[in-house]
Amino acid sequence: MDNHLIFTNEVIKAAEIVKNGGLILYPTDTIWGIGCDATNYDAVERIFQIKKRDSNKSMIVLMKDYNELKDYLKILPQIDFEQFKNEIRPLTVIYQHAKNLAENVIAKDGSIAIRIPKDDFCNELIKSIGVPLVSTSANFSGEPSAENFKNISEELKYQVDYIVNYAQDLVKDAKPSRIIKIMDDGKIIVIRE
Fold it and tell me: Which stretches of the chain drop beneath a pLDDT of 50?
């Protein structure tokens, strides 16, 4: 089976699982992640339980483009989003005043961490499910992030509903994204360089 067909089939399979409230292990634009529908409270809760993650630690949400922000933020920051489109390294932006997302994916202060991936698989998957996708590292809390598929714990693999069978052999120099926070006044604070 050629790579394009595998890619397409895996997007379809993973999207179906996510739409039905399931959890997937999938390759992101940074590291391997656990994902679910970011508007589904129960699915998000399962990720917290599987990862043994403190519910006070919010998760990153992937969206297909900056135009989607208006659907998930009560107030759009007065900034030029064009400046983010030219970032070479993946960029996660923390925005204030989240809405229309699962309550447990939004931080206690009402903020949400969003990344617009420059990755074909992530983008096709997000487009197929039609809602933002949770992206949290495929590891148990306190353990190192799974930079590549082979680094994911077997125990973790058994706890998700589907493992994407695409890019598993790909070894990349994966790094977590850069993180910035945009305040109400438009000021940008660097959280992780």
Answer: none
Helical segments of the chain, H only = 3-19, 41-51, 69-72, 82-85, 120-129, 154-157
CATH code of the domain covering residue 126: 3.90.870.10
SS3 call for 179 = strand
Residue 138's Cβ-count burial label (10 Å; 0-12, 13-18, 19+) is buried
Residue 68 β-bridge partners: none
CA–centroid distance for 69 within its chain: 15
- The CA distance from 138 to 25, in Å, is 7
Amino acid in the structure at residue 32: W
pTM recorded for the entire structure: 0.93
The count of domains in the chain is 1
Domain span holding position 117: 3-192
Q: Are 120 and 21 in contact (CB under 8 A)?
A: no
Cβ neighbours of residue 150 closer than 8 Å, sequence gap 6 or more: 168
